[in-house]
Design a protein that fits this description.
Blueprint: H1 2-18, E1 26-34, E2 37-46, E3 49-54, H2 70-84, H3 91-96, H4 98-101, E4 105-117, E5 131-139, E6 145-153, E7 164-178, E8 184-197, E9 213-214, E10 218-221, E11 230-234, E12 242-245, E13 251-254, E14 259-261, E15 265-266, E16 313-315, E17 318-333, E18 336-353, E19 369-370, E20 376-377, H5 381-386
Parallel strand pairs: 6-8
Antiparallel strand pairs: 1-2, 2-3, 4-5, 4-7, 5-6, 7-8, 9-15, 10-11, 12-13, 13-14, 16-17, 17-18, 19-20
């Protein structure tokens, strides 16, 4: 049977590669002799592909598949690797400091607002093929999406308005265009390397034993410290390309320039060099220190990391203050009392949206609590759920 299968494959390639021109809806007979037996293969060429039938019903044929070329395999592996390293830069940071992110590979999930097919009549190249999409990448309440990016997509797959898609691409700068009412609009521009329907996670690359990996979900920073802005994130088990460290060794630099706290990485190399280029730290900070969250304050915060209870500050398009801190055994929710194991520290934050559009607080600000010993306490959805909080 193996010899029949091999002969079948050879016959198909010989038919296509050496015969006369093959036309759709044609049938070709290919006699194959194996020992004393002769089989006749009928090869049918159609618009949808090639099908093969054999004269002897005892012979079972598998599906004829196209074998990808070595360069195609290499290109697909390279695409998978690039997508695995993609990060999601907060939209405000992508827009405000766009020149810092040009050339970075990013991933966004969003809703297609508009699709425009590229048109070219003469002297066309690859850049003249495909589609232009505007995709809103900030998910708000009630199914609303905001914060559009310009996506240059050279592929052939057709996407429709209102599709939810995952976009991987390279930041190319800012794009200006004229709206229907004639006003000029500027938004971040991405050259897509792949787009898929739905929300799709980055692919995971196989890691060799002992390679650096993230030991939990964590944020990536623009520098070695929680006072730097969040520029992306990693998931538990993601491979990390660690190339350097800060002087203290408690922060590690990745090849793409992002930073991650050292305690979030397993199998980090012991002989890492000290990074030669470290971004200047922001001058003011809200003190929200965690494994991946802090927001530079723009006004109202003192020089340092401590902010007094009741003091208002502005950051990330919000004005907020910690109005009250309580330590309680019982948690009161809408007038009912729920008793939980242990004690709860309840932090009451008053937040005001200063932006022109809708937004939600946890999109670019993630509050945590840090005790005097530097131990970090973050919000626990599981713990709160069990407490019926």
């Amino acid at each position: 049977m193996t010899r029949v299968t091999i002969a079948l494959i050879l016959a198909c390639f010989l038919l296509i590669g050496t015969g006369s021109a093959v036309h759709a809806d044609d049938d070709y007979l290919v006699p194959i002799t194996v020992g004393s037996r002769t089989f006749t293969l009928t090869v049918s060429v159609g618009e949808a592909g090639i099908s093969v039938r054999v004269s002897d019903p005892t012979v079972k044929l598998g599906t004829v598949v196209r074998v990808p070329k070595s360069e195609e395999v290499a290109a697909q592996q390279d695409l998978t690797s690039r997508k695995a390293q993609a990060v999601t830069i907060p939209y405000d940071d992508l827009f405000r400091y766009n020149e810092r992110h040009v050339g970075k590979t990013v991933r966004y999930v969003g809703k297609v607002l508009q699709v425009q097919e590229k048109e070219c009549f003469i002297f066309c190249d690859e850049d003249d093929q495909g589609y232009i999409l505007r995709v809103a990448v900030t998910r708000g309440s009630y199914g609303l999406w905001d914060d559009a990016i310009w996506v240059d997509y050279p592929g052939t797959q057709r996407f429709l308005e209102d599709d939810i898609v995952t976009v991987w691409g390279v930041v190319e700068g800012l794009q200006k265009y004229t709206a229907v009412l004639g006003n000029q609009i500027t938004i971040p521009k991405i050259k897509a390397i792949d787009i898929q329907l739905g929300e799709v996670a980055n692919p995971r690359l196989p890691t060799a034993p002992g390679s650096p990996v993230a030991n939990r979900n964590a944020n990536l920073r623009g520098g070695p410290g929680t006072h730097y802005p969040v520029v992306g994130g990693v998931r538990t088990g993601d491979a990390l390309d660690v190339v350097a460290r800060n002087q203290a060794g408690d922060w590690l630099q990745l090849r793409n320039g992002n930073w991650i706290a050292a305690f979030l990485v397993d199998n980090a190399p012991a002989d890492l060099p000290v990074a030669t280029e470290i971004p200047a730290p922001p001058t003011l900070s809200t003190g929200n220190a965690d494994s991946g969250s802090s927001t530079p304050a723009t006004t109202g915060a003192p020089a340092g990391d401590l902010v007094a209870i009741g003091q208002e500050i502005e950051a990330g398009g919000w004005r907020f203050k910690v109005s009250e801190v309580r330590k309680r055994k019982a948690v009161y929710f809408y007038g009912d009392s729920y008793i939980a194991m242990g004690r709860f520290l309840i932090v009451v934050i008053d937040a005001t949206n200063l932006q022109s559009g809708t937004d939600y607080f946890y999109r670019n600000i993630s509050p945590v609590v840090v005790d005097e010993k530097g131990k970090r306490y973050s919000f626990s959805g599981v713990g709160s759920g069990y407490a019926q909080w």
